[in-house]
Write a structure and sequence with these properties.
Elements (H helix, E strand, L loop, with lengths): L6 H19 L2 H7 L5 H10 L1 H25 L4 H10 L1 H9 L2 H5 L4 H15 L2 H15 L6 H15 L8 H21 L12 H13 L12 H19 L5 H12 L1
Helix pairs in contact: 2-4, 3-4, 4-5, 4-8, 8-10, 9-10, 10-11, 10-12, 11-12, 12-13, 13-14
């Protein structure tokens, strides 16, 4: 009898092993090493396993989000080189975070805000295939009808922004329609519910800039796509973006100056 394991002992051993595994996995340092290797489904399953692991993964992800937000602020300032260095330092984790729906899970109440601040940085730092992956994630998130119309339109335009130079030619008309839908939706929202001071907030200038960029880049007929008066439409949307940026950011802000430069080139 002494050499055999009873059913009770086997249960205790399994519980002890599970407890030990939970203790190890609840360490934020281990989560920090593990996360870049996890597919999204495994990440969600891991977080659901116990409260300790949930807290550890959430803490690590929030640290990454803070790094992403700091880099985003630096990138639209004269210190943009510091932003690139910061992202390079944390490249594996940030790439994992933004190329899966994990960011939407850990920042569900402010996902659009986080990704909107970071997408300039994403464009500068990601490879072509990484941009396409993020673009698809954003457009997939925009298709979920549980989001408000404004949040959906913000995600949609950001997805188009990252995807319009990486998608196959046959997708360009679809992306163009999505970009127009996003801008029209944002305009309609703020026409019905104008913020204090009127007009559109500063972050909506990027949607007009996205559509202007689409018209500017694709103003010549190609792959069967004809946009018609594309450069005039680009100028109109760039002027709208400038008006919004000048009102909220000032004429000498780097974002305003960039829009002014693109407008003069268009």
């Amino acid at each position: 009898m002494s050499g055999r394991t009873t059913r009770r002992q086997a249960l205790e051993q399994r519980e002890a092993a599970a407890s030990l595994a939970t203790t190890v996995m609840s360490c934020s340092d281990i989560c920090r090493l593990l996360l870049p290797a996890l597919p999204f489904g495994a990440f969600v399953s891991l977080r659901c396993s116990c409260a300790g692991i949930y807290r550890a993964t959430q803490a690590v992800c929030e640290e990454l989000v803070a790094i992403l937000e700091r880099a985003a602020l630096l990138y639209v300032s004269p210190r943009f080189s510091e932003a690139l260095a910061l992202v390079s330092e944390h490249q594996p984790h940030l790439s994992w975070l933004i190329q899966t729906p994990a960011l939407a899970v850990v920042t569900c109440d402010r996902y659009e805000e986080v990704i909107a601040g970071a997408y300039h940085l994403l464009q500068a730092h990601l490879t072509r295939m990484q941009k396409l992956a993020v673009s698809l994630v954003l457009r997939r998130a925009a298709s979920l009808r549980r989001s408000s119309s404004l949040r959906r339109c913000m995600l949609l335009h950001m997805g188009v922004r990252l995807g319009m130079f990486t998608e196959a030619p046959r997708q360009l008309l679809e992306l163009h329609r999505a970009a127009e839908e996003a801008v029209e939706g944002i305009q309609a929202h703020y026409a019905a519910e104008p913020p204090p001071g009127g007009g559109q907030p500063a972050n909506t200038a990027a949607a007009h800039y996205t559509l202007a960029g689409f018209y500017t880049y694709h103003h010549r007929p190609r792959n069967g796509m004809e946009l018609g008066d594309a450069l005039k439409k680009a100028q109109s949307h760039l002027q709208t973006a400038l008006t919004i940026q000048c009102r909220h950011l000032g004429q000498l802000h780097i974002s305003t100056l960039c829009t002014q430069l693109v407008k003069s080139q268009a």
